[in-house]
Design goal:
It is a single chain. The protein is an alpha/beta fold. It is built from five helices and five strands; from the N terminus they run βαβαβαβαβα. The protein has a single domain, classed as Rossmann fold, CATH 3.40.50.
């Protein structure tokens, strides 16, 4: 396992506390994980920290949803290059289309196999499995 300073920084935006705890516990072995559950907390995190990748749920607490936040990320010169993976229970084809239109780099439907999720994160960050 890499030292914390060598790990890529992952921001998880998820409003379900149980899912958030699981994701954090599972992914912290591979990434430096930061979490939030609302649009307000998201803005605070983005202002204070730099992230290598974002795992975004569509339904979150606050006035905006994950697609609106993704649109803002992709329109911001400061954040536009950060990959955003949409990870959501919204699994209809229209949800997938809306996510891609908003700027999500990948759409994953819940539930998903943990290895598929991990490999998707590794792929976007050009990390070889087994090197973390």
């Amino acid at each position: 396992m890499k030292e914390k300073k060598d790990k890529k920084k992952l921001l998880i935006i998820e409003d379900d506390s149980e899912s958030l705890r699981f994701l954090q516990a599972y992914l912290r072995r591979y990434f430096e994980v930061s979490t939030c559950d609302s649009d307000e907390a998201f803005y605070e995190k983005m202002e204070r920290e730099n992230f290598d990748i974002i795992l975004m749920d569509i339904s979150i607490k606050g006035k905006k949803n994950g697609l609106e936040l993704t649109r803002e990320i992709k329109q911001s010169p400061r954040f536009t290059k950060i990959p955003v993976i949409c990870y959501t229970a919204h699994a209809l084809q229209k949800d997938r289309v809306n996510a891609i239109k908003a700027g999500c780099d990948l759409f994953l439907s819940k539930p998903i196999d943990n290895k598929i999720l991990l490999n998707s994160l590794f792929d976007f960050l050009d990390i070889q499995p087994g090197t973390t």
